[in-house]
């Protein structure tokens, strides 16, 4: 609260300690800008105009200039945006990405990590995350009858130490809803509920789990989880929506990999090193490295290349190793045993990798042609011939259109010069001119001719990483400045993560293959731990290590370290199988506990870190949207393929082309699952604006743990959003069309399909009262709707969609 008050008063926040995530952001993004781009004129030695931006004390004294917490008033931001007479740096404008980083820094209070917060990095051979994974023996227990698996034994041992007893098991309704949402992101169908209730065998739940793991919806759900720890989106650029029409190939590769239960070590290798055959779907795997928020319009290509390698180094570190490697860009890591040389050893691998296309090629990302066969060549030839005809026809039509516009404009000019002025003729002519202009395009910058040319057919290609023709080691960039270079650093891996001699990187290789082999080694102490912890997080709501992307000293320690090593060992024993790991976890008794509270246990463990009950938590935004469509009967079963709405209505066609903010998703995609919707950088499209409100991950960040928020705008959205209203009306109409149903039967169907339990007497009474009162109120209105019954049922269905019981997994 104090922090909020100070922001409102415009007072500096430098007295407050930065959070771990802010420290990481400052060290990897802000400090390099302040030192390399601002420090020449505003260091402790120069202090031009009395402003210093390279120390905590200097920034504190410059608060009037920085305006911490109020970016709209910040003269610093006005200067770097070139918005006034003062333009900084005067030599060359900062990139859009650098300006965005400084804007976030100022908005969050211009925090500067205190020197006192620095700790001595842990020794690699003593810190838990760097020690080898050793499978522990299951602990002995007082209560020998409760546990069903070794997972339960590790959990119960901790509970017994604290004198806590687990709560009762969840009932069948709760359990089926939970596991179906966790494994597929959808609700169980009524037939699935009925079948599970009827199956009295000891294997009933195991059969359910097997069915869900085999469902294509499993890949949709868990593929989306993986995309959270990547930079995946269907656009690139900072501040612009530059379309990446083939980005979907990486998304589909990820989903297919989870459905096939691809061994995780192979999954890792494919995304870093790729595969040799471009004709295989796996060739899209290195989209992991190349699909990013690249500011490819930057005039400083040298700095851009370094910044791209920085994002890639940080991405690999967080995603696979759970380490904030990017914090070592300007100096040795302040908290973990990662040196500046380690950082540039890894960065050299990505500097030796083709990521950006040469020049200002469309999309700016390296592409590789997929080998053609006779069928694809014939199809391309036909598409190309059709495209040429469309261009010729469009140009001819536009020429006629322009001539007609000129004639109408000339007529308007003549009428305006006449006396007396004939307003009717002018209005008719202006209406005709507007209609002619509309034929050219929907707006001046969205013209039919340029768009038609833009949509030139291409032979199949994929966004992918390749080795540079002449790989080379990186030079240390002083303070992250690509123009202030120090010593060469051989390409290598993290010296603190030691498990035998690291593989040697050949001179002609970027080192991606060797890096992939090193990360995916079963001896690497981090890889398996990080992955099973992420799986545990998605099933329980919290990881065994709560900071899923930070296993370093500034992250949270594991609540159950022996269980973490047990799961990591099991993953490797099971051939790195994701599905077998999930199966082991969901078949445990701890997963199947009720979410009911217990007063005594809550006093001892209020945050449920020891898992004496299940965690009740709100559904992710994708599950909310998909479940609404599922219950209304409007969910499109289509899967895979392009998502972008590349039409003349949506694309800004004055180069560089980019998608407009008011782009509309095409009908063929609009009602598919959320994972198949186009994902934009910055704000999501209006058709899926629910993503903007319910904590969807930022595509420019690695987000293994989404931070759930509860804010009024979410409730207002559920009450007023056209999407929710339309699906509620669709559901109501479908129920009323079934004349063989009475109102109780309709209520029963809604409750069973949306909440996955039988309707109670209370449900029937509430529904009856709600419908009666609402229909009566509607009839009293001056202009009642034509069908008050449909309107009342629509509002009832709407209430169900907005209810906590629908929105929460229990």
Task: Please give a structural write-up.
With 810 residues, the chain is mainly α. 47% of the residues lie in helices and 4% in strands. It is built from 32 helices and 14 strands. The strands form seven sheets. A two-stranded antiparallel sheet has the order 1-2. It has a two-stranded antiparallel ribbon with strand order 3-8. A hairpin with a 5-residue loop joins strand 1 and strand 2 (242-243). Helix 17 runs antiparallel to helix 18, helix 28 (722-737) packs across helix 31 (788-801) and helix 30 crosses helix 31 (788-801). It is globular, with a radius of gyration of 30 Å. The protein starts with a helix and ends with a strand. Residues 1-16 have low confidence and may be disordered.
State the share of residues found in helices, binned by percent.
Answer: 40-55%
Shape: globular
**Strand tally, please?**
14
User: How far is the first residue's CA from the last residue's CA?
Assistant: 31 Å
Radius of gyration: 30 Å
What structural class do you assign from the helix and strand content?
mainly alpha
Strand order of the largest sheet: 1-2
Instruction: Figure out the total of helices.
Output: 32
What proportion strand?
Answer: under 5%
Largest sheet: 2 strands, antiparallel
User: What is the mean pLDDT?
Assistant: 90
Which runs of at least 5 residues are low in confidence (pLDDT < 50)?
1-16
